[in-house]
Task: inverse folding
């Protein structure tokens, strides 16, 4: 969550710094401001502005809606941050062996989540789970519920992970895709985010061991060696 500090700068996760926490500055060091538009007085602050900020790390621009008490100019005193854009959410690291298409889908779901498109994020995290299971030979099991159960029976995921895959990813995604429209919030989707990443680690972090389990279970999938030979 973005916060304004006593110097008037914003501390937030930067999309172009891969979600790392950065300081967004409101002016060059000891020189001119980036710019601002006055938005008038509000009950909680003497002044309110739409103000430009710049990431100190990568230089990306951003805009903040800030309030402050001052008889002169920003940053004044008692700053309040009403809104800030763009702000990244936490970007999770994926194993290097995750297929590019699945990784891209996961990352797009993260972008939906941080832009408050919660239903879209939930649907995409479900899709990540579905595509991962299909890529590992579980397509023949039928529906997603059966595929998750089969992966647990093969020992690729634990019983605990199986429960999380059902409750936090599959069911939430099904609600979005098949049921009547309901509003979701960040908390509804964060667990799907977390356990989608954990499932990708289950399948791709120690890929050699997983491929041995899949082979023993008779699953048809593209091995790491076959994938390398085709590229």
Result:
């Amino acid at each position: 969550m973005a916060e304004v500090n006593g110097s008037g700068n914003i501390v937030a996760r930067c999309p172009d710094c891969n979600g790392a926490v950065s300081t967004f500055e409101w002016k060059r060091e000891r020189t001119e401001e980036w710019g601002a538009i006055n938005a008038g007085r509000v009950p909680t602050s003497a002044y309110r502005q739409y103000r430009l900020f710049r990431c100190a790390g990568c230089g990306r621009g951003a805009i903040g809606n800030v309030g402050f008490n001052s008889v002169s100019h920003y940053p004044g005193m008692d700053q309040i941050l009403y809104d800030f854009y763009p702000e990244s959410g936490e970007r999770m690291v994926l194993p290097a062996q995750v297929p590019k298409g699945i990784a891209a889908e996961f990352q797009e779901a993260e972008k939906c989540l941080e832009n408050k498109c919660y239903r879209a994020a939930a649907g995409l995290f479900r899709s990540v789970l579905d595509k991962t299971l299909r890529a590992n030979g579980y397509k023949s099991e039928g529906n997603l519920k059966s595929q998750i159960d089969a992966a647990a029976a093969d020992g690729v995921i634990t019983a605990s992970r199986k429960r999380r895959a059902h409750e936090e990813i599959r069911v939430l995604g099904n609600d979005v895709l098949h049921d009547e429209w309901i509003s979701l919030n960040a908390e509804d989707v964060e667990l799907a985010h977390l356990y989608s990443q954990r499932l990708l680690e289950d399948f791709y972090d120690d890929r050699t061991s997983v491929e041995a389990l899949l082979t023993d279970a008779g699953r048809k999938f593209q091995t790491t060696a076959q994938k390398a030979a085709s590229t």
About this structure: Residues 159-178 form the longest helix (20 residues). The mean pLDDT is 90. The chain has two domains: 3-85, 100-220. The radius of gyration is 23 Å.
